Amino acid sequence: MSFTAYYNLQQSLKSAEDSEYRKLELLATSNASRLDQLIIDIQRVVVQVSTEKNVVGFLTSTTPEKQGTFRSSVQRSLDNIFRSNPDYDAVYLLDKEGRGLASTDPTFMGQNYAFREYFQQAIQGQPYVSSVLVGTTSGRPGIYFSHPVRSESGKILGVAVLKIKGEEIWAIVNALQAGSGSYAFLVDQQGVIISHPDKSLLYHSLAPLPPEKRKQVETDRLYGIEQIESLDIPKLAAAMVGTKEIGHTSYYSPQEQTRQMVGFAPLDEQPWVLAVNKTDAQFTAPLNHLIWQNSRSLLAVGAIATIIALLLARSIVRPIRALTKAAQALEEDDFEPQGLAEVSHSQDDIGQLVRVFLQMAQKLKAREQNLKQQVMELRVEIDEAKKVRQVAEITETDDFQQLQKKVQKLRNQSVTASETETEYYQRLQQRVQQLKVRVVDDGQ
Prior knowledge:
Elements: H1 2-51, H2 53-60, H3 64-83, E1 88-95, E2 100-103, H4 117-123, E3 128-134, E4 141-150, E5 156-165, H5 166-174, E6 183-187, E7 193-195, H6 211-220, H7 234-240, E8 247-253, E9 258-266, E10 273-279, H8 280-331, H9 349-395, H10 398-412, H11 421-443
Antiparallel strand pairs: 1-2, 1-5, 3-4, 4-5, 6-7, 6-10, 8-9, 9-10
């Protein structure tokens, strides 16, 4: 029973552990889908800005005078889009050289962003979504969405950029919890944390970056910091960075100095991975509860089984003890069938055994009596035969034969006058007795 309980417990623990991991994965998947939808919605807005007629006309104009005819309408369009969502940080337009021509943030005007990857990709005709970067002008974190602005003939005229506040992504990610003490974090394609409830861990890599990649990131100051520090968690980095599959893993956190459990899911629109994290203590709490429940159940079942076993053992041992005493009494010729009368009424195997024993005892008693009678009869026969044999031994001796002849001779003689008949027989008897003694002595 203990082995079965242990096996069932291990299977239950495995199932419970898989269930806990599955919960983390589902939470990560659902919120990754939410982030994907947010990215898709904002990309549509950027496309809307890049195809707006006034924007196209503004970037098509080659002289300040022609641009001036579109500036007010373009600025109004940018402002309307900016005010449509409080999570937007800025909306602006860049020319083919990367200079800011129009913006909802005046500080962007005249700045050159040609070094930014979101400009480099868009000017080549590719829509682009950045990681959570820190603005070189504003110093505020955000995600940059860029899209090429094309003329009616398809010629690229410039780039439309929409920046959303990094806090918007952080709020979505930080709102995700799988119970008390759990948290979520977001990792980009470089393996750098771009969202974490602990701000001190932002822009740290899960594992050391390759030297070339690290140099590029630090030179471009993509994250607004001079040096990317590593959390030195290679196991977590290997499982998460660049993955295309939903999964889970466990790892040791040097910062928290505890074992952590994590379920993660990649985004479809960006090479980011969203993870939901739990400490080992929180993760194993339901498992420990299951162990406690199984232990209590095992103890309860064990106690009940023990009681039942004792009762069954008592019901079996009691008739066996009675049967043992009866066998001993039968051996000592002191057997009383009444001692087994109660047990013999049972319909189980023990009762059947007792009934067979009673029948055997009765037959054995009868045989014993019969044997005693036969022994007594045999003893009488033996005594008679012994007497006959002893008499035969006496009568067959030469002395007895001579004595018998003498007696016969004496009988044939007449009784003397001086001796009466009585005296004669007494003398004859004495003579016979002497011969018997003599024969016995000779035999010894």
